[in-house]
Amino acid sequence: MGLIPNELHADEPWVEKYAGELFYNIVTKADFDPHDYKYGSFIYYLEALPYFPIMSMKYISESILNPNTTGSFRDFVISMKILDQRNMTIFWMQRAQIALIGGLSVLVIYQIVKKLFHKHAALLAAFTLAVLPLHVRESHYIVPDLAITFFISLSILFMVNLFQTGKLKWYILSGFMIGFSSTLKYFPLALLAYPFALLLVKKKDWYWIRNSMIGIVSILPGAFAGVPYLFLNPQTNIPVFQKGVETALNWYRTPFTEYASAIVLFIRSKGQEPLPDLSIFIPPRFTRYYLTLLFYRGFGVFPSIAALMGIFSLLILHHKKILFIMIIPIFSFLYFSLYIPALYERQADTLLPFLALLVGVFLWSLWRFMASRPIPYKRTIFLIILILVFYYPFTQSFASSWACGKPHIFQESAIWISRNIPSKSVVAFKGYMPFPQGGYELIPLLPNDIFSIEEVRSTGAPFAFINIYDTLIGYTNEFISFFIKPTDLYQNYYPVLALHEYRSRANLLQELSRPAMCNQPQLVYYQLPPALPNGKNPIIYSLFDSNSDMNYWHLQEYSKKSKADILYSAEEGSTSKGSLQFTWSSINYTLPRIVSDKIRVTPGAAYTAAAQIKSDTSLKETERDGFLRIDFYENENANTVLPGPVTALSPRIYGDFEWKQVAVTAKAPANALFMIVSLQVNGSKPEGTFYFDDILLLQSNELPPLQI
């Protein structure tokens, strides 16, 4: 469900291209070499298969309709120009093959758990994998990641048979599948489990040693089967392979790959080239990206808790098998989280069968425990636990697959714009968002350039359309390392703060989105709020003619403290000497902001905050920084560290280091009690100084009617 149309995965065109060329070369030149080794060879051979039945049926049909003009099948394939355009039937079949592999992975995990534990645990584990949102989503794309998961799982199944039966054929098949699975992305994960499988063999004698060595030797024919033409035509293909590896290392370079390369150089130079110090293996950082991905979206909160409980179940009840079962997921998780610089959701795919196994083992162990004790309503309790564990994965996978079967959100976006936005309108937009052809004046937005409501207003655009996914992915990477993002740092971070301003002040015309695991972006369409006249009645002013004005302003620190401070500058000033100076020498995610005391407001009244701001260095347009902010709060005990229900931001300054005036006007909501005025700096440079002077807060003359 949802294979077509779905979105196009970024890596699918590459596989499509070489699979199509492989079919073309087989038919026209009898050339079975895929001529690319980015993803091994299996994925290209697999995805070339649908071309044969579809093109054969087309050829037969053409031969019946035009028998005199139809030449050979080879000539027909050449004339069809299959490489110039996508055949949607073939594309659907290519995706269906990956979905089939995803389904076969479920059967393999069932067999593994059944052989290791019990058929009831196997059913629970298989069902878990079948509805796992990340597994279901990856089953929709013609990329090799799910195939890697399948063949690693198959390797584990063969190893289970190896230590349970001791038969030679399972040693051979285990080694063969280890070699084959390693060629899909050149990551020999299955090899990690092989030593532990050997240790689980009950009878360790001469035949055990012999069979173990035969299994290791069998890795080579498995690798040959995975990339045959890398062995058959090394002179041509090894340079292609090396080029692909060099490109991949831009994203996947780790101390392990560097040390492996150093060993090769060490051997080639006969010891002349020294090996790196082992200190390179000290992890540079730990990213919680994959932990967060699985816990919240790819797996779910309750399934994740069940998997953790499954580890305890293994430790207590099946400790002899735990290293064999857990070595691959533990190594994968630590390797991805500690070393690999690139962050891709699909890297977590290899963890999924093992997580499903853990859930199955936990639920089975839990039921055995409950069944052996006089617990009232045990069936009802267990049913509730099952619902808690499986509700999110099942509903998320179903909803995402169903939504992916609908027209793509970008297609829906273009239709909505053409029907609802007048032609020749000026539209500011952020992130990829297709527009109907012609008729619109488009202004690109960037969080470090033009982005907030007042900045967009200065361009003359009445509309702001934002791709939320692009904005957050592109400009909040600093927060990937958090398992739970600190709300004070995250919500006050400028791109997130500006999005909150749109939600609180602008008119939302439309929002288009899909369920989280459909992997399509959230698009929002705003109309800017009407411009309000500046207030004229001053109620607060800080001219900083003396140090006493500093008493009204305070530094609002966050949970992660930056090296920043405020002080009175007697030298710098806008109209006269004296200003508030904000200096920072390091940024810990979000710089602290300077806040006023609480200011009582009249609901419905408009308030203008204005100030003179100066930077100690010149700022490019893409380094805009320094702005005023108004937050209205509706509760006396509201947490003023976080943005209020309504937030308004002034434009940021840029250009030469001269005094520049900024202002923002916003209306207090109906339930507002007080407001906070903030002086804020993003930190567009690693260190610097901003000066604030002549800060005024003005109230509009037109007040709402007095409510009696």
Protein described:
Helix 17 (301-317) crosses helix 19. The strands form three sheets. Strands 6, 8, 9, 12, 15 and 17 form a six-stranded antiparallel sheet that branches. Strands 7, 10, 11, 13, 14 and 16 form a six-stranded antiparallel sheet that branches. The chain is of the alpha+beta class. Mean pLDDT is 92; it is low at 703-708. The chain is built from 25 helices and 17 strands. It is globular. The protein folds into three domains: 93-401, no CATH class; 409-527, D-Maltodextrin-Binding Protein, domain 2, CATH 3.40.190; 537-699, Galactose-binding domain-like (Jelly Rolls). Helix content is 46%, strand content 15%. This is Glycosyl transferase family 39. It is a multi-pass membrane protein.
Essential attributes:
alpha+beta; six-stranded antiparallel β-sheet; membrane; 46% helix; LipidA_mod_glycosyltrf_83; 15% strand; disordered C terminus; single chain; D-Maltodextrin-Binding Protein, domain 2; pentosyltransferase activity; globular; 708 residues; Jelly Rolls; RgtA/B/C-like
Quick overview of this protein structure:
With 708 residues, the chain is α+β, with helices and mostly antiparallel strands.
Topology:
Elements: H1 12-29, H2 42-48, H3 51-65, H4 73-80, H5 88-116, H6 119-131, H7 133-138, H8 145-165, H9 168-182, H10 194-199, H11 206-217, H12 219-226, H13 228-232, H14 234-252, H15 255-268, H16 289-298, H17 301-317, H18 322-338, H19 352-371, H20 378-404, H21 409-420, E1 426-430, E2 441-444, H22 453-457, E3 463-467, H23 468-475, H24 487-491, H25 494-505, E4 507-512, E5 523-527, E6 537-542, E7 553-556, E8 563-569, E9 579-586, E10 593-596, E11 599-600, E12 606-615, E13 627-633, E14 646-649, E15 660-667, E16 674-680, E17 688-699
Parallel strand pairs: 1-2, 1-3
Antiparallel strand pairs: 3-5, 4-5, 6-17, 7-10, 8-9, 9-17, 10-16, 11-16, 12-15, 12-17, 13-14, 13-16
Helix pairs in contact: 1-2, 5-6, 5-8, 5-19, 6-19, 8-9, 9-11, 9-12, 16-17, 17-19, 17-20
